[in-house]
Amino acid sequence: MVKSGSANPINSTVSAAAGDTISGFGPEDIAAIQQFCLYVDTELGLSANTLAAYRTDLTDWALFCAGHASKRMIEADDRVVSAYLRHLGEDRQMQSSSVLRHVASMKMFYRFAISRGLCAINPTELLETAHVWRKLPDVLARGQMEKLLQAVQPGHPLCLRDQAIVELFYACGLRASELADLTLDDVHWDLGVIRVIGKGRKERIIPVGLPALQALEKYVRDLRPRLLAVKGYRTQRVFLSRSGRPINRIVLWQRLAQISRAGGLRHIHPHTLRHTFATHLLSGGADLRVVQELLGHSNVGTTQLYTHVDADRLKAVHLKHHPRP
Prior knowledge:
By secondary structure, this protein is mostly helical. The chain has 15 helices and three strands. Residues 1-24 have low confidence and may be disordered.
């Protein structure tokens, strides 16, 4: 939600993207995108990244309507939509997954616009949001995971923080934004769990294994106070930079990549550890629904993808049940 007295990022981004020189991209389209983004932010509670994706997709669509069809997006028909999808696929050579994301953004916008009386027709009504083949997630073998855990350099001034970060990613399967947003109040030391606010602002409670809990406790006790004292910042966020400011997900991506290179591993990102967390749980016999809950997936089908990743388990099942193993 946009705080009063601060610049409105929805308004400024859309207005800047639209400009005043493109015929047809008028105040009606800008206002419609702003209303939709406000709805996504305040009523649906979707993440900032999802909001940014919707805003970018719809601004792009509005610019196409103005520049190629001389129409406002709220007046576009199915022929303009078809031309736009050809433009994305043929002229801009987008991957099918990216085109489908644009389709999903447009369909959601027009359902909203119709419900609010912003336009008379839904030009995306006949479009189907097809499913694309999902690439199997990258997962670290257990030996690789141990190698990564040992790759944090003991002499590095932030080694206690980095050790806690890697341990927590693997122990809890957090998204980068979830770990960056973690506060001291979210850590329940006595119960050995953390409270996480995930996508759609949904809350979940995740157990923390003893190695991760010990690494986190050591960082919070021995290093975090020194980081806070550097410039006197006050924050409840758990993970801090050298200057004592809360770190963000970009810093987490960069630091994890540096640690993985130091350990002689390929480029590893936070989602690799999330995938690894889920796969190792399932290969250890964890119930699929429990893993779904720990990951915060709304659809068990998303979690089920990890059952296809554990090659050793699949081979064992094949060997046991196939008539010609």
